[in-house]
Amino acid sequence: MCGVFSADGVRLRQMLIGALCAVLLVACGGSGGAGSPTPPTTQPPIVDRSFDFSLGNGGWLSGQADYTMDTAPADVVNDIRSLPAPFTGLGFYSAGTNRSDDLLIYVKTKLSGLVAGTTYRASVTVEFLTDVSSGCVGVGGSPGDSVWIITAVSTAEPLTTFNSGSYRLNIDRGNQSVSGRDGIVLGTLANSVPNCGERRWESKTVSTPSPSPLSVRADERGEAWFLVGLDSGFESFSRVYYRRFTVRLSPT
Strand, coil or helix: what is 188? Predict the structure, then answer.
């Protein structure tokens, strides 16, 4: 009887141990089953891009928007030029006459090397030269305080399209002093010279606030578009020399 009991006891212990292992295996997810632990995901890296126009155009494209057929600007210029004294070197000269109380002159480029499908928060800094004083009064608005430096990021390429009699940008960058879903106002063209003083070229830098409200989703090729523009409510001629753009794309 003792031998039978001992054998049964061993078998019972083996059964209990087997059952316990099975429970633990299920609880831990087994080895490759449906409950297997998910390997940790790798966060895409932050992407920094810097565009220095002292080195030339760098492949940037340009365009204009916010006008009708009757008020289309005839003198828009976007090219690399020597900087005005006392500055030296090259810059991206962007200029044109607003004939409609509303004119956007923009430059754009494609950002590559992103992770497809990832949403990024965009922080932008724009460095430029301006000779327009603050506090001036002009036709339709101030030549400095009513001309805004704006930026935008988008999955779709920003393009000027004709709709309902007007040429408009196909992304929601906002308009003049108002930001939009894809764009934000960084600042104005006005420099530090007050009350329509002497025309003096100064360097000015404007940036997105922190944290930046701008975000963009990289397309299936890991690309997105970046735009900087001069949006005018001043009904006359405006100009700017862009020196450097930087954009930091942080995955969210």
Answer: strand
How many CA within 13 A on the CB side of residue 144? Answer: 22
Q: pTM of the entire structure?
A: 0.83
Range 87-118 burial, b when 16+ CB lie within 10 A, else e: eeebbbbbbbbbbbbbbbbbbbbebeebbeeb
Count of structural domains within the chain: 2
204 alpha carbon, distance to own chain's centre: 20
pLDDT tens by residue, 122-169: 999 999 999 999 999 888 889 999 999 999 999 999 999 998 899 999
Kindly state whether residues 22 and 112 are assigned to the same domain. Answer: no
Burial of 157 (0-12, 13-18, 19+ CB in 10 A): middle
For the segment 216-229, the average pLDDT, to the nearest whole number, is 98
CA distance 10 to 70: 98
**Residues 133, 238: one domain?**
yes
Domain range holding 206? 47-251
